[in-house]
Amino acid sequence: MYGREMEMDMTTHGLRKLLTFFAMLIIVLWAQPSYADVGKRFVPLHVKHFSTISASPHNKSLRPLRVITFNLAHGSKNPLGLVPLFTRLRTIKNRLKVIARFLRKMRADVVGFQEADGPSWWSGQFNHVDFIARHGGFPYVGLGIHVHTRRKRYGTALLSRRPLYSAASYRFKPLTMFKKGFVIASIRWPGRSSLLVDIVSLHLDPQEELVQTSQLKELVAVLKKRKRPVIVMGDFNTGWNEGISPLRILTEKLKLRTHQQYNPHLYTHRFPSSRRIDWIYISPQLRFVKHTVIQKKLTDHYPVMADITYRIPNKTSTKPTPKLPSSKKLPSSKKLPSSKKLPSSKKLPSSKKLPSSKKLPPFARHSYWISLPVRPTSQPVRR
After folding, report:
1. Coil/strand/helix, residue 285
2. How far is CA 230 from its chain centroid?
3. 261 burial level (CB within 10 Å; 0-12, 13-18, 19+)
4. 42-310 has which fold?
5. 155 and 41 Cβ atoms separated by less than 8 Å
6. Residues contacting residue 7 through CB under 8 Å, at least 6 positions apart
7. How far is Cα 167 from Cα 43, in angstroms, rounded to an integer?
8. What is the pTM of this model?
9. Interval 64-116: pLDDT, tens
10. pLDDT tens-digit map of 310-346
11. Per-domain residue ranges for the chain?
12. Are 278 and 309 in contact (CB under 8 A)?
């Protein structure tokens, strides 16, 4: 009995050492110097167009735009969000096919991804975003690489059924070991081809609120230069009720708003505790028609979907007439006359009385009888 306990202790100790080794290996490989740290942090984004996939028709009628934000977690499905290091290539592709079928079923117009992999050693050495776009029916794809080393590439992405314009990728200042950023592009609003709206897929630092605040200030500076209505969605890694939330920067600087920001049931991340860290914020010119957290276990994050419409200004409204200032009052000597009375000599006749020979019968004493002419009788009048 004692020997068996010793063997079990040795086995457990060996497994702990093995897990510790692999954890340290992942951290070392994760923290490799990134080529993205060298050069410009704001670069134009190349948008791929898959011509074999039909684009969404440009409807003449105004309709809501459906957007979805979703953290891909590098193609993994574990609740810890760890990379699929020991997962077979076939399994990773099957997971991404399930996500593509889900997006096709939801009929999303634009999808924002975070932790979206390009060719990386830990996730099968293929582009996850292009793979989902081909299987989900998205002809326009833009992937912004925020981490680029010899063996891994990943960042944020936008998938769209409509053409993307003025696309760019932005990488935040490297204040921590986690390299984050966002991609931004413009689309033409359904039914209003002259209206361009910016859409952002964002990923913030997972730990430090001061770093998140600095990153959101960088985002605000970029959006103010573009001067367009905007939809900001992504993994913010912070909630509204968690201390002095960095999210207040978006509401104070850009007047953005979200759906039920105090609702505790709209959580999007379930480990180690239920938290709402994935958000969709919109400009005052836009409004939510529908907002849903889809509690479907595709990764360690739940997808967030929203139908958004554009506020049409009321054309019939007119400008209010300017009021006179209270200081300009009429002088007391120039009072307006109360009413214009007619002189006593020019009084109106009360009524036209009929001659005595043509008096009305006694039963005809109402006013409407007065206006009726009296018909002469056919018989001669006797005198």
Report:
1. coil
2. 8
3. middle
4. Deoxyribonuclease I; Chain A (3.60.10)
5. no
6. none
7. 9
8. 0.74
9. 999 999 999 999 988 888 899 889 999 999 999 999 999 999 999 999 999 99
10. 987 655 444 555 555 555 554 555 555 555 555 555 5
11. 42-310
12. no
